[in-house]
Amino acid sequence: MEVVKRNYYAKDKYYEAKKQVIFEQKTHKKVFLMKNLTNSLKAIKWYEWVMMVIMIAIAAYSMISAFINPQDGGNPPWLTVINFVSAICGVVCVFLCAKASISNFAFATVNTIVYMIYLWYWKIYGTFFLELLVYFPINFISWYIWAKHRDEDQEEITKSKKLSWRKNILVAVIVVVSSILYHEILVSVGGTVPWLDAFTVAIGIIAVTLEMLRYREQYVLWIITDVVAVAMYIAHFDAVYLTKKSIYLIMAIIGLYNWWKLQKNRNQQNV
Fold first, then answer.
1. Which has the higher per-residue pLDDT, 170 or 12?
2. Which phi and psi (to 5°) does residue 43 adopt?
3. Does some domain include residue 256?
4. 3-state secondary structure (DSSP) of residue 96
5. Contacts of 93 (CB under 8 A, 6+ apart)
6. Which of 57, 90, 139, 244 has a 20 to 30 Å separation from 131 between CA atoms?
7. What whole-number distance in Å separates Cα of residue 112 and Cα of residue 127?
8. pTM attached to this predicted model
9. Stretch 131-156: mean pLDDT, rounded?
């Protein structure tokens, strides 16, 4: 009987110790993630904060105006709340992604969800299905891959790679062919802006794949798709999303420079 009690006590102590180890590991992980997020936010430049304030001001004005004059046309009041959340998460995401910060995916996930609601309401089906079937699942895959290839000097960012000239040509061919094919699909389902929508989808799929694999050339495609997106929101005027996509365009140019510099100076091997 005494032996049984000792064995039971030993097992109890073992499980208590195991629980303590798991708790400490979770605590360490949370501290590590918060530290990375804090470092990433500290790296945001003053002009990015200015763009953030402008984005918040326009989104807030649009939201308040919709509730004051709900019959004034444009977005319904509830959708302006969605726009406000999307505006904040979206710009923070692109600020961090332009710096190769792994923390960007937390904001990207929230932004993707609320943006899909907006797209479905306005029947912009091509971009909606791009967000649902590509961007949303790839957010989590990319998060994992980036975290597995942290930069040695700054652990809150990932390593940058570059494409060979053959792969660049292949990417261009895929974009053109897929744009033509997807345009036909969108016309058949009654998309409102089929050519712009199809081109955005084709480039977006390739760009997000390059982003997932950490290639700097993703930003060449992001620049193109952001130009198209700005044109789309001029045609279908929406002050919040026009401002947001304009900021995306500016940050895509900055991101291309940052990733090019990171790959050239620090991550010269395609690891």
1. 170
2. -80, -10
3. yes
4. helix
5. 104, 105, 107, 108, 111
6. 57
7. 11
8. 0.79
9. 91
Compute the 3-state secondary structure of the chain and give helix, strand, coil in percent, each to the nearest 5.
80, 0, 20
Q: Which helix (H) or strand (E) holds 109?
A: helix 104-121
d(CA 119, CA 125): 7
**Cβ-based burial of 122 (10 A; exposed 0-12, middle 13-18, buried ≥19):** middle
Which range marks the domain in which residue 110 is found? 43-265
Domain assignment present for 228: yes
207, 221 contact by CB (below 8 A): yes
**Rounded distance, CA 253 to CA 98, Å?**
9
Q: What pLDDT is recorded for position 236?
A: 76
Which residues are within 8 A (CB) of 270 and not within 5 positions of it... i.e. 6 or more apart? 161, 162
Query: What is the rounded distance in angstroms from the CA atom of residue 260 to the CA atom of residue 266?
Result: 10
Q: What is the DSSP letter of 73?
A: S
pLDDT of residue 70: 79
Residue with tokens 């895509």: 252
CB 40, CB 96: distance < 8 Å: yes
Quote the Cα angle for 186-197-161, to 5°: 125
Please, what is the average pLDDT of the chain?
A: 83
Cβ pair 108, 139 in contact under 8 A: yes
- Tens of pLDDT along 23-62? 545 554 555 567 777 888 888 899 999 999 999 998 899 8
Is the separation of the CB atoms in 152 and 125 below 8 Å?
no
Amino acid symbol at 143: W
Domain count, the chain: 1
